[in-house]
Amino acid sequence: MKGFSKEEKSWVFYDWASSAYSIIISTAVFPLFYKAAATNAGVSGADSTAYLGYTIAIATFILAMIAPILGTIGDYQGYKKKFFTFFFSIGVGATAALAFIPSDQWLLLLAFYTIAVIGSSGSNVFYDAFLVDVTTEDRMNRISARGYGFGYIGSTIPFIISIAIIVLSQNGILPISTTVASKIAFIITALWWGLFSIPLFKNVHQRYYIQKEPNPVVNSFKRLGKTIKEIRKYRALFLFLIAYFFYIDGVGTIITMSTAYGTDLGISSINLLIILFVTQVVAGPFAILYGRLAEKFTGKKMLYVGIIVYIIVCIYAYFLKTTLDFWILAMLVASSQGGIQALSRAYFAKLVPKENSNEFFGFYNIFGKFASIMGPLLVGVTAQVTGNSNSGVFSLVVLFIIGITILAFVPEPKSEKVVKEPVTN
């Protein structure tokens, strides 16, 4: 990573570390492990998918409730790293704990999965906010995209190891059950996440902050209330949050529920794991490509491209029948999922005042988390009502259409400082 500072490299490396959780726990091994446990307990495929969606919704609702106030407190000098460490610790701890829960206790699995989701998502609130501390505005697209790119690439290593252990156990080459092999994957994830987070703890520090003051919690509530009143003065920021609320909902839902969706379509576990692995490999370079293209065509135009790709994904999913169809769908997702997330993070970082980055990223995440409640619920309810998972994914298309429409009205960032201007009717 020539041309990158030590702080930028260390920040990027956390994506390398935490993305193991994203692929193994959120997307691949745990959903398959949970689906098998629920099926053995007599739960239907559509119902178990719905319950997973409801669990994700509950976890994100909890975080959405606490993120803004934690972000506001986190803006005080020395607090950002402390809050990051807390959520990081419970995320890694809950991930490791999944390995010690009996496989027939599917409800308990969902409970610890909820804790893991809160830990992972909570740490990302403060990790995202560190972007303003490690680089300059003109490099944010590149650094944010590089983070997602390295995350996808790096996560393939523990993913390959985990898949190898599971496949070898299934074929009797390793003298362990598939259940034990899956639990080993959970341990690998926790260790990978913890080990490669060390550079961030050593080299990334809070450069922009608000000086400490008496009664920080009380004053944080006051500042939060003031921000809520004033946020509409930041026209670009306000409109972007509304657009982001809708389109990131669909992105997150497709990522977290893709494996359950594939299982309902009858795709084998091995095929799903292989598809997800290739998706990670393809997504890494595409995320970096989005960052470079954003420097040439602007981040906003590349966000348009990503959203349009996802609209095509939702429409195609409705007609999906075969494993080949799922491959095509996965590659479409791989081409844009990292890019749209990275450029959204960078776009927002350019709009926020740096000394209040945690507070504003608290709003960024609350919009994203509340959206993540709506998406899984929409898929879950639609799947149960229609008895068809395809219809559930197709229902997400409306969120992307609303998101891209509102995004069209968002002004381009012009400088490092947010330009206050009244919202016009």
What does this structure look like?
The protein is mostly helical and 425 residues long. It has a single domain, classed as Growth Hormone, Chain: A (Up-down Bundle). Helices cover 79% and strands 0% of the residues. The chain is built from 17 helices and no strands. It is globular and about 60 Å long. Residues 415-425 have low confidence and may be disordered.
Using only CA atoms, what is the Rg?
21 Å
Percentage beta strand: under 5%
User: What structural category arises from helix and sheet content?
Assistant: mainly alpha
Figure out the total of helices. 17
Shape: globular
Please bin the fraction of helical residues. over 70%
**How many domains make up the coordinates?**
1
Give the tally of β-strands: 0
H/E order of the elements?
A: HHHHHHHHHHHHHHHHH
Estimate the mean pLDDT confidence: 83
Largest sheet, if any?
none
Span from first to last CA? 46 Å
CATH architecture: Up-down Bundle
In CATH terms, what is the fold-level topology?
Growth Hormone, Chain: A
Summary tags:
425 residues; mainly alpha; Growth Hormone, Chain: A; 17 helices; MFS_trans_sf; transmembrane helix; Atg22-like; membrane
